[in-house]
Amino acid sequence: MTEYQKHDHANSFGAVAAEYDAARPSYPAELFDRLEELTGRPLKGAEVLDVGAGTGIATRLLAARGARVTAVEPSPGMAAQLRLASPELPLVKAGGDELPFHDGTVDLVTYAQAFHWTDPDRSIPEALRVLRPGGSLATWWNVKDTSVAWVRAMGERLAAALPSYQHQGGSNVITEAFAPYGLPTASARLRWQREIDVELLLADLVSRSYFAVLTPEQRAPVLAAERAALLAEFPGGTVTEPYVLDLTVVTKE
After folding, report:
1. Angle value at C-alpha 237, between 161 and 22, nearest 5 degrees
2. Residue closest to 247 by CA, chosen among 96, 143, 120, 107
3. Could you report how far apart the first and last alpha carbons of the chain are, in Å?
4. pLDDT tens digits, 213-240
């Protein structure tokens, strides 16, 4: 993906914020257990910036664990949906490449499904700047499990139909980006699944950048083909959707 395409895709989410909030997968409780293990501190009472917060899916779960969390989101559309869904959460409209926070003031900076939209040469120094000594940067990605046949087949169909389709993974993105800094890095891989209606699964697809950059007229035939293929695979209309969740934690010394 070129830098122009990346910018175009990164800015596409505002128009599909409602679909994003309704249909994107959440995260299992085990993720936050492992996050506490890898950072070596409880989330309760921690000062957290959830950067690229989107509609607040991860932000709400961090707050539920007792973190004092501030959502950081650059997209007006996504921020508006977050405000609608969770008006009680502090929200700052900014991106990870330029964090409007003082040096050494937070315990944890999190990126849920979002670090790959930043410029690591800018976002990494910014995260390190705002973290206290011993604080951590954590990134995680839910990725559909392509070891499952129907998931793999869907990916092949989408790759053939959509020029910018990407099966987004992320565990190596943060590891490679942080390698020059020589900081302690730890990771975990979790597997989980959710039960989802076919129509909600299609809404999830619409919230993906490779769909969001399309016009409704361009999306329609692809979605129709996916609906037919999924209903042929799952005639009852309910899908068991498997995920691999990669978590990476980097700690500031």
Report:
1. 75
2. 143
3. 34
4. 888 899 999 999 999 999 999 999 999 9
Distances (CA, A) of 180 to 18, 108, 214, 244: 38, 20, 37, 27
Distance (Å, rounded) from C-alpha 135 to C-alpha 186?
13
How many CB atoms lie under 10 A from the CB of residue 58? 25
Do residues 67 and 43 make contact, with C-beta atoms less than 8 angstroms apart? yes
User: What pLDDT, in 10s, does the model give residues 135-190?
Assistant: 999 999 999 999 999 999 999 999 999 877 765 555 566 778 888 999 999 999 99
- Tell whether 218 is covered by a domain: no
Which string of b and e fits 100-112 if b means at least 16 CB within 10 Å?
ebeeeebbbbbbb
Amino acid at 18: A
Identify whether 220 is part of a domain. no
Q: How far apart are CA 202 and CA 158, in angstroms?
A: 12
CB atoms closer than 10 angstroms to residue 3: 8
Helix (H) or strand (E) holding 37: helix 29-39
Alpha-carbon torsion angle 197, 200, 206, 208, nearest 10: -80
Tokens 């293990």 locate to: 37
The parent domain of residue 93 ranges over 3-144+167-193+242-251
Number of domains within the chain: 1
Instruction: Pull the structure tokens for residue 119.
Output: 């410029």
